[in-house]
Amino acid sequence: MVLLSVNIDHVATIREARGGLSPEPAAAAAIAELAGASGIVCHLREDRRHINERDVRILRDIVKTKLNLEMAATEEIIGIALDILPDMVTIVPEKREELTTEGGLNAAANIHYYKSVVSVMHDADIEVSFFIEPEQKQIDAVSDIGGDIVEFHTGIYANAIQRPEMEKELKRLRDASQSASASGLRVTAGHGLDYANVVAICAIPQIEEISIGHAIISRAIFSGLDDAVRDMLAAMNVQRR
Predict the structure, then answer these.
(1) Which tens digits make up the pLDDT trace of 48-75?
(2) Is 50 considered catalytic here?
(3) Does residue 168 contact residue 200 with C-beta atoms inside 8 Å?
(4) Which of 30, 118, 162, 206 has its CA 20 to 30 A from that of 112?
């Protein structure tokens, strides 16, 4: 069975559109967990465009499954993570001008620094995932760094229009998942996945968990969040029954 972590950033995005207190991301997290989600994901960005520190602290108090804090490995956010103590952190690249995370982290570019980040997180009993492209160079870097998990960026696959392009990217994801697992890393995936394209990703044997936000929150507008999460779980696991 493939597990589902639900990213609730877009609930906070709707809230911030009016600058008020509603909708409450913590309420969304509770509904998602009751519907079967195995984890809650939120991204505390430098510019606080959606999730803020208050949200993360409340989530830490109420999440019963697993709280995954996506974060850039900056001094400020590292300090917040060590104070709040999520169950895990996912190190992601971050640019102010992007609408959402545009691609995987270049972990290979600064192995020494990321080793120090992993060390302090492990000292606090926080697991560390790296959001990377499905490339051998990046897999090797995360293994060298001492990370626990790789989350493969699925955006290129999700945005593919032509079947050959999609199949090419699926093969890249399959090969990378096999290599990462053989290196002792746990394998997850996410970005741009929806109720249709998630099926092929979940058929990759090494992938144990998927992180999805936008597609679920989009469907929830029409069907409600509980049904949106349950529908995604059904779509994800059709290949593994």
Answers:
(1) 989 999 999 999 999 999 999 999 999 9
(2) no
(3) no
(4) 206
